Amino acid sequence: MNRTILYMLTLGTFLTGFAELAVVGILPIISRDAGISIAQAGQLVAAFSLGFAVGTPIFVSLTQRISRRRLLAAALLVFAAGSLLSYFSDAYAAMIALRAVLGASAGVYLTTALGALPKLLPADRLGRAMSTVMMAFGAASVLGAPVGIALADGWSWQGMYLLLGAGALLVMLAVLRLMPDTEGDAPVGFGRQFAVLGRPALAAGLAMSLLFSSGVALLNTYFVPFLQDVLGLRASYTGLTMLLLGLAGTVATRFGGGAADKRGPSAVIVRSLAAMTLALALMPLATYAFSSAAGGLASGIAVSAAWMLAYSVAIPAIQTYFVRIAPDSANIVLGLNTSLLHLGVAIGSLTGGLLADASSTVRYHPWAALAFGLLSLSAGLVSFAKGGVREKRPNAAAAASKS
């Protein structure tokens, strides 16, 4: 496989992740420039995630027989067209519709890119290639918000769509020129995909993932307004603060993956979700108790950082857990989980928007996120109780082989 095409696929992954996450950091700017409320601006995040969650499994199922090269090029072309149209769109309804198009095309691209790698690489190089492509999502999560803020301050927030469109067209041309043609996959019916929900451990685990994502997105979508309006952070420091928090979250994600391998994913998930809910419970109390003190901003950011670190640790552990308890259908389960994670982002963004409209503030968002966190932890405990025996089998098998 040409190393250049791997880098181009990685760049495409970064662009799709950036398109989703950059908006989070500039909601106040979009609200001001477009003449809409913060809650309405937040629905741009929900529209992307809903397009990803609903559109991806449908379009991937309908296009499974198409060659990976042509499907990747088509997804990138749609993504580029949606980005360029977004640059010229001022109407709120058009902005929402185009965000859904971007989400669906991004989902098809990511799923197809990951599915194409096993057809292009030998097994001994597949893991490294997968990690290279997926690292782009980590980079997008770190750089999305601060780079979005920098673009909005130095140019315009619509300008990011021009860069996304140009980047997508560049990757498309590289795919068409450098990537060999590979056959599509055998169709997997929706019945088989959803049959896994009949297994209690998986059903409860997927519910845990959905609730987890909903709670994180509820606060994360409105985190910049929370920093500025509730904690009192100056707008000029917002980009740097988001960058530092994102870098810390990336380190925590790497730690979570290693901890899941060593200690078992369920143990890591329970601890991280418990720490996340504790941080959410303390967040409003810290901001209230120190609202008039010099340390109020620092204490609020410290608790917020603890929340971010906790949920970052949980993300790879949740993925590992599904592979452990469903090794025979890991691709199907991980595909469902990806859709549910984005559906959770849509639910959380919509809920956060409704709460912001009803209360005219984002001060109460940590409490609402706490409710989702407690429900997620409860669903996780049910899943672990049902699937704990199967999760331990890999370790048990390894121990048996040594004896």
Describe the model.
It contains 15 helices and no strands. With 403 residues, it is mainly alpha-helical. The chain has two domains: 187 residues, MFS general substrate transporter like domains (Growth Hormone, Chain: A, Up-down Bundle), CATH 1.20.1250; 215 residues, Up-down Bundle (Growth Hormone, Chain: A).
What portion of residues belong to β-strands?
A: under 5%
Look up the CATH topology of the largest domain.
Growth Hormone, Chain: A
State the helicity in percent bands.
over 70%
> How many distinct beta strands?
0
Question: What is the rounded distance between the termini?
Answer: 41 Å
Poorly predicted runs of 5 or more residues: 392-403
**C-alpha Rg, in Å?**
21 Å
Question: What's the tally of helices?
Answer: 15
Mean pLDDT: 84
CATH superfamily of the largest domain: MFS general substrate transporter like domains
Order of helices and strands: HHHHHHHHHHHHHHH
* CATH architecture designation of the largest domain: Up-down Bundle
Number of domains: 2
Structural class: mainly alpha
Short description:
84% of the residues lie in helices and 0% in strands. With 403 residues, it is mainly alpha-helical. It folds into 2 domains: 1-187, Growth Hormone, Chain: A (Up-down Bundle), CATH 1.20.1250.20; 189-403, MFS general substrate transporter like domains (Growth Hormone, Chain: A), CATH 1.20.1250.
Topology summary:
Layout: H1 3-21, H2 27-34, H3 38-62, H4 68-88, H5 92-120, H6 123-154, H7 159-178, H8 190-195, H9 200-220, H10 223-230, H11 238-263, H12 265-289, H13 296-325, H14 330-359, H15 365-402
